């Protein structure tokens, strides 16, 4: 049955919060102050860069196809900030990510030569296919504005992951700006996503599809880290065990 809007909105938030990416076993390896693993952080960051390069495209499509005029302005502002960084007094968000990558000692040629692992590509493709299909707009909005932007709100021991990474690897706040900007902004973006998807889903089927989109997107994020762990961590553990 069709849920009342308030109940559905809470169900969307609960679905997001049910998945904790920071519980993935790759993060204790990255956040171990006694054994910093810079090569692993570099590899993980280059996979994250594959996501960053596509994010503005997702927002542009959500803006273009938005069937709710009252929400188009917020999406336009979101795209403007992604492209310019003016509202946060920073820079283009891809440029901010590239600044972080350089701080890790990765040169531009290595950065540009990196390619997504299969699980990373699955996440990119799922969201891109959804936002490009007006008939699946509610699914794309749930995947991008709730599940994806919600990833930046997770904390470990009450601290954001980038704060912990900065402490473990000695990275300056200037070079961590990509993450601090998103952590601040994405609180509002997730709220906008919850409001938009709640308004869009006018049937029980649409509500269930939106909930499934949040669930699947979060699972795809987790699988992306599975792919990285399999690629760079499991063999190391096997060697240590032997």
State the main characteristics.
242 residues; mainly alpha; Heme Oxygenase, Chain A; two-stranded antiparallel sheet; 12 helices; globular; disordered C terminus
Describe the structure.
By secondary structure, the chain is mainly alpha-helical. It starts with a helix and ends with a helix. It contains twelve helices and two strands, in the order H-H-H-H-H-H-H-H-E-E-H-H-H-H. Helix 1 (5-18) runs parallel beside helix 11 and helix 3 runs antiparallel to helix 8 (137-148). Strands 1-2 form a two-stranded antiparallel sheet. It has a single domain, classed as Heme oxygenase-like (Heme Oxygenase, Chain A, Up-down Bundle), CATH 1.20.910.10.
Short overview:
The chain is mainly α. It has helices at residues 5-18, 26-30, 38-65, 69-84, 93-103, 108-113, 118-131, 137-148, 161-169, 177-200, 204-232, 234-241; strands at residues 155-156, 159-160. Residues 237-242 have low confidence and may be disordered.
């Amino acid at each position: 049955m069709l849920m009342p809007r308030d109940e559905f909105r809470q169900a969307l938030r609960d679905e997001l919060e049910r998945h904790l990416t920071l519980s993935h076993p790759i993060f204790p390896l990255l956040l171990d102050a006694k054994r910093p693993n810079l090569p692993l952080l570099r590899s993980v960051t280059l996979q994250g860069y594959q996501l960053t390069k596509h994010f503005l495209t997702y927002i542009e499509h959500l803006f273009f196809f938005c069937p709710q005029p009252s929400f188009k302005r917020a999406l336009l502002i979101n795209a403007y900030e992604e492209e310019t960084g003016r509202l946060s007094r920073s820079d283009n968000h891809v440029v901010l990510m590239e600044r972080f990558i350089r701080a890790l000692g990765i040169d531009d040629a290595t950065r540009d030569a990196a390619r997504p692992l299969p699980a990373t590509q699955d996440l990119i493709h799922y969201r891109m296919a959804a936002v490009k299909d007006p008939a699946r707009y509610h699914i794309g909005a749930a995947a991008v504005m709730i599940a994806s932007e919600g990833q930046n709100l997770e904390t470990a021991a009450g601290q954001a992951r980038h704060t912990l990474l900065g402490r473990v690897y000695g990275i300056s706040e200037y070079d961590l700006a990509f993450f601090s900007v998103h952590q601040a902004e994405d609180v509002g973006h997730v709220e906008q996503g919850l409001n938009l998807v709640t308004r869009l889903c006018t049937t029980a089927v649409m509500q269930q599809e939106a909930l499934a989109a949040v669930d699947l997107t979060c699972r795809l994020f987790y699988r992306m880290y599975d792919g990285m762990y399999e690629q760079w961590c499991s063999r190391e553990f096997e060697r240590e065990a032997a």
